[in-house]
Amino acid sequence: MTIKRAGLDHVKEAAHLFNLYRIYYEQKSDMDGAVNFLHERISNEESVIFLAYDQEQAVGFTQLYPTFSSVQMKRTWVLNDLFVHGEHRGKGFGEQLVNKAIEFADSKGAAGVLLETMQDNINAQRLYERIGFKKEENYFYFYKI
Predict the structure, then answer these.
(1) Would 52 disulfide with which of 68, 88, 93, 103, CB 3.0-4.6 Å?
(2) pTM, to two decimals
(3) CA-closest candidate to residue 3, choices 103, 106, 96, 105
(4) Which residues on neighbouring strands pair with residue 75, listed in sequence order?
(5) Sheet strand arrangement including 134-135
(6) Nearest to 18 by CA among 29, 3, 8
């Protein structure tokens, strides 16, 4: 298992996973849109994407967006997307991706990592809580660094 930060040379393989992620959330397949969206995010440094590899195959990704905490006067990262291809779930890829996101945010001096997930996504909630995220009453999870 290898985790790499995606650059422009990784857009197509990231877009494949991103498209599957969107389909999971009942969106229509749109590979061209996925490629364009991720290319723009990376080109404009509007998001950070990490890819998980099994051998040479990208099998999962996470995408972080920057925001700020006015109270703490620091950047906060939103872990907006986490997806592992169904054939590779339960093998630790998701946990490694989340840990890499936390490590990245910490290295940038962030206040923490914020995420939200569906109320019925029990498996993801268990993962986040095992890593150290705390559920707030409004169903946001926050990992304080």
Answers:
(1) 93
(2) 0.91
(3) 96
(4) 68
(5) 2-5, 48-54, 57-69, 74-84, 112-116, 140-144, 134-135
(6) 29
